[in-house]
Amino acid sequence: MKNAHELEALISAFLTDDLLVEDDSSLTPESNLFAEGYIDSIGIMRLIAHLESELDTKIPPKDLVPKNFMTIKAMVAYLATQRSPAP
Fold it and tell me: Which structural domains are found in the chain, ordered by start?
């Protein structure tokens, strides 16, 4: 299981390498990826497919809501809850 820092790095690397987001200091874990123009609807679906593949997980359709994918920080928090064992 990847920790929060590793998840953040995985997402940031995909954004900069695969989606060609400029790697600059304006992209932070709290940046609103949609409002600030870093990603669009096609890009987020590519990112989700990448995360599912890299993390060997499936993100259910009910969880594909903006609050879970608005920022890198939100994605890391969401993925941490998905990968936690059930009580």
Answer: 4-19+38-83 (1.10.1200)
